[in-house]
Design a protein that fits this description.
Length: 450
């Protein structure tokens, strides 16, 4: 008996067991807290998705050309994306397409709320659930909450917009666009491309954005660019279908008579006195043309070359292929030599200046200087500006690249929209004076808190 009482076998094991009781409790409590952390991370993901989707809806409602966002309310869209990340408001149930919400055990409830303040959308996601081991700390329930805020930001309205291929800067141009911006809808890694050296000056540009990335060979111009931005809707796309639908029968007088050859030449516009189009027309070298009104050109290359001088207030519309004959390739613009070009677009177009078939798109012709639907050409067209030349108005070339070599003429409505654009000269752009119907609108949605 005495030996048994003096025996110490098992005492360490007993002490170990005694010590393990609180240790296991702490570990279990840590595991429960860990599960809260995981739920918190999932809730944050759901809040981010809800806020961003709500921001997209808000941007859509402000007229950025979205497709289906506006078919539902902002609150619906935000909660839809929260549900797709497994968080549903208990009052709504599992009522959203793609929802990953499940039926929770008794005592667990989720809530999703959305608030809008100006251009900010805030989504708050929470899950209330019972506490288990944490009850020893006085917690009966735990409310796990996450919030995110998305901002809808309006970029400077682009006065230079590429519809497909990159916006390129070459050489050492100085580009001024203080009241507007430059944008590219290219999705390439170099949707905005600076090729040259540190002499490329874009310090006086409101904003630069691209749907893809930005590349540069010198300097730090890409630091100004907003990359992977949403596409900018083309405000003049309605002209494409309207003008492509024109027929010779829409011009009662048919082809215009040949203009006089004695300089200066007052080239008759549509409706004054004839309602006609020019077929296979070229401006003659060493002649001076005074333009006033809207001019339609079909088939062949419209050459402006040598010592030709063109002045006035006018809109030049080049008609698409097959307008007159099935073999016609359409009208295209070619500028070569050193012509003097000083053309300003009219502020508005009236119904008497165009065929009745274009009555529905008169608002899109405000400030329109050149419309050229020429099929894609690798060389595209070059617009040259210098101390005596200027193109004041909107140049719209949706299907082929444009090289813009600059203009010293500064007006409040100078804008270029083209398939691709290369800026290689000192250029001034400003669309603050353009009609709202012809100005691109660019917005981005970003998370500002998460």
């Amino acid at each position: 008996m005495r030996k048994m009482l003096r025996c110490r076998r098992g005492s360490v094991a007993f002490a170990t067991v005694a010590a393990m009781v609180p240790l296991v409790g702490v570990l279990a409590l840590g595991t429960e807290a860990g599960s809260w952390y995981v739920t918190k991370q999932h809730a944050q993901t759901a809040a981010d998705a809800a806020a961003f989707s709500g921001g997209l809806w808000l941007a859509c409602s402000q007229g950025t050309g979205c497709s289906d966002q506006a078919s539902q309310t902002l609150d619906y869209r935000a909660k839809e994306f929260a549900a797709q990340n497994a968080f549903c408001d208990s009052a709504d149930g599992n009522a959203y397409p793609g929802s990953k919400c499940t039926t929770h055990p008794s005592g667990i409830a989720q809530a999703v709320t959305v608030a809008v303040a100006g251009n900010f959308v805030t989504a708050t996601v929470s899950q209330q659930q019972p506490a288990y081991l944490a009850k020893i700390l006085g917690l009966s329930t735990v409310n796990i909450r996450a919030a995110a805020t998305a901002e809808v930001r309006t970029l400077a309205n682009p006065c230079v917009l590429t519809l497909h291929d990159p916006l390129s800067f070459q050489g050492s141009p100085t580009v001024q666009a203080q009241n507007c911006g430059l944008a590219s809808n290219s999705t390439a890694s170099g949707s905005v491309s600076f090729t040259g050296n540190t002499g490329i000056d874009v310090s006086k540009v409101g904003s630069i954005s691209g749907q893809g990335g930005c590349t540069q060979t010198g300097g730090n111009q890409c630091s100004k660019a907003i990359t992977y931005a949403p596409p900018v809707p083309n405000p003049l796309s309605g002209l494409d279908s309207a003008i492509s639908a024109l027929k010779p029968a829409d011009f009662p007088d048919g082809a215009c008579p040949n203009p006089p050859t004695t300089s200066p030449i007052a080239l008759p516009a549509y409706g004054s006195p004839n309602k006609c189009y020019y077929d296979s027309f070229s401006f003659q070298n060493n002649k001076t043309y005074n333009l006033s009104g809207v001019y339609f050109f079909a088939n062949g290359q419209i050459n402006i070359q040598g010592n030709t001088t063109i002045t006035g207030t006018a809109t030049l519309i080049l008609l698409p292929p097959n307008f007159v004959r099935a073999s016609d390739k359409g009208a295209s613009l070619n500028i070569s030599g050193n012509p003097t070009i000083q053309i300003t677009a009219p502020a508005s177009i009236t119904g008497t200046q165009v065929p009745t078939a274009l009555a529905s798109v008169l608002n899109l012709m405000s400030n329109l200087l050149i419309y050229d639907p020429e099929p894609y050409s690798k060389n595209g067209i070059t617009l040259t500006g210098n101390s005596t030349n200027y193109f004041s108005g909107i140049t719209y070339v949706p299907n082929t690249p444009v090289t813009y070599q600059g203009s010293t003429q500064s007006t409040t409505c100078t804008q270029v929209i083209a398939y691709a654009i290369t800026l290689s000269g000192n250029s001034n752009f400003d669309n603050s004076g353009c009609s709202a119907s012809v100005k691109p609108t660019s917005k981005i949605v970003r998370l500002v808190s998460s």
